[in-house]
Amino acid sequence: MSQQPALFDLASCEQHLVELAGRDQERFTGSTVAKDGELVEAVLAAVVQGVPRETIARLARISPSTISALVERAEKSGQIGGWKERMSRILSRATETAAAALVEDIEKGKLPAAQKPVAIGILVDKKLLLDGEATSRVEHVERVRPEDVLAKIKAAQVIEIEGKGEAN
């Protein structure tokens, strides 16, 4: 039985797949997109403004992975603030929006006063926590009766100290 020659060279096919994967990997790390400075600036501005990454990816026609890579690089270089700073800004805006909607809905009689304050309280709490502010207060109260104070005074020992004063 004679063997037929292979239809394609497997080694060259594998090499081609590795080359393609290399290009894809480069594309998904944002390095290809990074060459378009205007696009990168627009993407980073949208991220800083709190636009959802899926929306940015759809509008800019790039993958969410590419956006993540661009953001990571921009954070490391100091081009944009870190996650905590961006989240604080977004939560601040969300808190203001929710509070305004709460007031509007209550004034219009659209909802009972007990529904939205819980959400606003959570948003405010998390915003304060991100900003390093206190989110709770712990108070220690000790009740002291006058009889207890008097007993401690009577139990105190008097110590006499004799001193000599010398002028310098």
Keywords, separated by commas or semicolons:
single chain; about 170 residues; mainly alpha; elongated
What's the structural blueprint in terms of helices and strands?
Elements: H1 10-28, H2 37-49, H3 53-60, H4 64-77, H5 83-107, H6 116-130, H7 146-155
Helix pairs in contact: 2-4, 5-6
Descriptive overview:
There is one protein chain. By secondary structure, the protein is an all-alpha fold. It has two domains: 15-80, no CATH class; 82-135. It is built from seven helices and no strands. The radius of gyration is 34 Å and the shape is elongated.
Question: Short summary of the structure?
Answer:
The protein has 168 residues and is an all-alpha fold. The chain is built from seven helices and no strands. It has two domains: 15-80, no CATH class; 82-135.
Instruction: Report, as a whole number of angstroms, the end-to-end distance.
Output: 121 Å
Main sheet?
none
Assign the structural class, choosing from mainly alpha, mainly beta, alpha/beta, alpha+beta, or little secondary structure.
mainly alpha
- Supply the number of helical segments: 7
- Which stretches of 5+ consecutive residues score pLDDT under 50? 6-10, 20-27
Number of strands: 0
Average pLDDT, all residues = 78
Coarse shape: elongated
Radius of gyration, CA atoms, in whole angstroms: 34 Å
Share of helix, binned: 55-70%
Number of structural units classed as domains:
2
Instruction: Assess the beta-strand content as a share of residues.
Output: under 5%
Order of helices and strands: HHHHHHH
